[in-house]
Amino acid sequence: MAGDESKFIREAWQSQREDPVLLTAKELRLQSERLTKQVRLRNSFEYGTAAVIALVNGLYMWLFSSMLMRVGSALIVAGTVYVVVHLHRRGSAGSVSTAAPSLDFLIAELKRQRDLLWKVWEWYLLPLFPGIAVFLFGLSVMRGANGLPIVPDRSITLTVTLVVVSFALIAFANREVSRRLQQRIEMLERLQR
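RESULT FIELD:
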């Protein structure tokens, strides 16, 4: 008897339908504005970081005598420019200035950001790799007046390891954010039905 009752309760609980959650125009506007602010803040940080990377590597092109390190620095600057242009074109925040923001707008913006973050290897990390590789190779073959390496092999190995781990962490973090955005998109798409 108790088993039948618990089975009935479990079946009733499992057959429940979720009541649709409705977003008011105000809530929709707040979510859209919050997303826009987050995207602009992220992009501002990325643009600032890119400026520092370009400035430092621009100086390296003039300071280092090694052609490999100069070429590596130039490639890093070129990769950084590519990243910034791609981020600006594909990852800028959409305008929320419409009188009544729509659910379609919010979903479309979330999808753009999800896709951008999901492909971080393609547009963010991969363009930087050639410059870093050439620069580090140039650093590893530099010799002092005595013919000995200026930078010990273990320092190069440690640097390569740090770069690889950093890239992996960046990719992982962006994929996780992309997954969370997908969950949010799915929840909002259920509201459209």
